[in-house]
UniProtKB/TrEMBL annotation:
Lineage, uppermost ranks: Bacteria, Pseudomonadati, Bacteroidota, Flavobacteriia, Flavobacteriales
Organism: Epilithonimonas bovis DSM 19482
Transmembrane spans: 385-407
InterPro entries hit by this protein: HTH_AraC (IPR018060), TPR-like_helical_dom_sf (IPR011990)
Superkingdom assignment: Bacteria
Keyword vocabulary terms for this entry: DNA-binding, Membrane, Transmembrane, Transmembrane helix
Protein name listed in UniProt: AraC-type DNA-binding protein
SMART domains: HTH_ARAC
Pfam families in alphabetical order: HTH_18
A single MF term (Gene Ontology): DNA-binding transcription factor activity
Length: 564
């Protein structure tokens, strides 16, 4: 589920839909046949391949990316996952959109780290993702990349540095999930929040802060509650509870929690966490005097290593247990076998974990220091509009702007990221000083003034007009389309079309929730009520924001009201 956590919210932001009208219904119809399958369930793949073929035939880039992402999610074979991730990267590069390219690098890096335990390759992809993320303004994507770099640092033993990344990402996702209750964004932000929490718990546990780690396990489980779809994250919380109980001498409780976690970790083919859970399960049984069962769990670690070639330094001593057991039983063949396995494991550990820190983090950490120096500017920017709640929420995403400024400073100093900056439509963009390419100074309204006018635009429901476009709105606000788009990107954290369609869907969702008459309307009528000309376009955006189709949303409300 880790891949599902990171990909869906980012993959298609701002992507042009170039399919013919009517195509979207085909993709949704095919997707509905496999959406109930779980991760790594190959039964979904015939339908997914059908979607891929349909998207290619119709030349629908958005649908093709979507279908490839589903293929990564449902394919159980890691080599095929990587092949589909390569396809996502190729398609993303063809769009020349930094957010899509950053996301594609990130997704492939996750496969290298999560499925192959190849941290060198993962790190290279994360650095590529980070470089492209500095060219776009999606704070969600940026914090996911920060999270993944934290994961690599943690694996390498740099827990103190990794903790800074995880805590930054944790704060961001906690704020977002609190603001997005009841939406599909809430689901994704909650999942990201729980994965960050898991990483913080592991660091606290390694630092012997068992009380703090246990409290965060409770926090994570409480956040999940009875919600569906968080099986992996609950397994992580249970695993950590079990380990902490073992470390504190509560081996029976440890076995209870670890036994709860293991089936889900096995189903997910999560080699790293499954092996760690087996390691502490073995030690718990050993502490209780049940050596035979302990050895069974240690041999599971060897089975995972034989199948995946992965072993973390934390659980290396399992082989010492297996060698000693074989020696005690005068099993020379066993001693020789496990000794050879240990040597192979040590080679794997050196390969995966002995990455030069200089190569790993010099560029990223230099950029991070600059970011910290520039945070003051963001705070000042935030305080300027503190009186308005909408702006206050927007400025919490100031990190995106900070990164953009930081990159431009680096360019000025001759320190340019070696990254391909492709794409069209830049001729109208202004630099930070407000000059166009000719160098002529251009007079622009104050940012706060434009944001205030956007609030008036929202309150007056002008977005419900079908013919709203960025050029006309910019003219009404007394600016140009490039500057208006820049402000919306920086402060609303979405493109202009996303901004308008989000306002429309939020409006109609509220109407459906509060006004019974709207629930009797057809989908076409609902689309017209919020200014969207096409029923299919309306259904697409409604599903993107609310996570379900309009008719499903209406039926859900009706059922809840019937219960009441």
């Amino acid at each position: 589920m880790l891949l599902r956590l990171l990909l869906p919210m980012m993959l298609f932001l701002g992507l042009r839909i170039d399919a013919k009208s009517g195509d979207e219904e085909i993709y949704y119809k095919i997707e509905s046949r496999y959406s109930a399958f779980l991760e790594n369930d190959r039964r979904a793949m015939p339908f997914v391949r059908n979607n891929i073929a349909t998207a290619k035939t119709n030349g629908n880039t958005r649908a093709l990316l979507w279908a490839y992402e589903d293929a990564v999610f449902f394919t159980p074979e890691k080599k095929i996952k990587l092949r589909y991730a390569d396809s996502i990267l190729a398609v993303a590069k063809s769009t020349a959109k930094p957010d899509l390219i950053a996301d594609a690098w990130l997704g492939r890096g996750i496969i290298y780290a999560f499925n192959f335990k190849n941290y060198r390759a993962a790190l290279d992809d994360y650095i590529q993702a980070y470089q492209y993320s500095t060219l776009q303004k999606d704070a969600y994507l940026f914090h996911h990349i920060e999270y993944q770099i934290g994961v690599i640092k943690s694996y390498l033993g740099y827990d103190t540095e990794a903790l800074v990344h995880f805590e930054n990402a944790l704060r961001y996702f906690q704020e977002k999930r609190s603001a997005d209750i009841g939406s599909v964004s809430y689901f994704n932000h909650t999942r990201a929040y729980l994965n960050c929490l898991h990483q913080v718990i592991m660091i606290y546990r390694r630092q012997n802060k068992w009380k703090e780690a246990a409290a965060l396990c409770e926090t994570g489980s409480s956040a999940i509650g009875r919600q569906q779809g968080f099986g992996q994250e609950q397994a992580y919380m249970d695993k950590e509870r079990g380990i902490i109980d073992h470390l504190q001498g509560g081996d029976n409780r440890a076995i209870f929690w670890l036994r709860k976690a293991l089936p889900e970790l096995r189903r997910l083919q999560d080699a790293a966490n499954f092996s760690v859970a087996c390691y502490y399960m073995g030690h718990s049984y050993r502490a209780l005097g049940n050596q035979k069962t302990a050895i069974l769990y240690f041999t599971k670690i060897d089975s995972v290593f034989s199948a995946t070639g992965y072993l973390s330094p934390e659980i290396r001593s399992a082989y010492a247990m297996l060698i000693n057991e074989a020696r005690k039983n005068n099993n020379t063949q066993g001693v020789n076998f496990y000794t050879a396995q240990l040597m192979s494991a040590d080679s794997s550990i050196i390969k995966n974990f002995a990455i030069l820190p200089k190569k790993t983090f010099t560029d990223y950490d230099a950029a991070t220091l600059r970011m910290e120096n520039l945070r003051l500017l963001t705070r000042m920017d935030k305080e300027e509009w503190m009186g308005d709640a909408a702006i206050m929420i927007g400025t919490t995403f100031g990190i995106g702007l900070v990164v953009i400024v930081m990159v431009r400073k680096r360019v000025g100093q001759g320190r340019v990221w070696s990254v391909c900056r492709t794409g069209k439509g830049n001729s109208e963009r202004l630099n930070e000083e407000g000059h166009n390419k000719s160098g002529k100074k251009e007079q622009r309204p104050n940012v706060a003034h434009i944001l205030a006018k956007l609030r008036d635009f929202e309150r007056s429901k002008e977005f419900l007009k079908e013919d709203v476009n960025v050029t006309e709105l910019a003219r009404e606000l007394g600016t140009n389309r490039s500057y208006l788009s820049s402000i919306i990107n920086k402060h609303k954290h979405m493109s202009f079309p996303q901004y308008i369609n989000s306002l429309r869907i939020v409006y109609i969702t509220k109407r459906l929730t509060e006004d019974r008459i709207y629930r009797s309307y057809s989908v076409d009528a609902l689309a017209k009520c919020c200014g969207i000309a096409s029923r299919k376009t309306f259904a697409k955006h409604f599903r993107r924001i609310n996570g379900i189709a309009p008719y499903e949303f209406i039926n859900k409300i009706k059922k809840e009201q019937d219960k009441t």
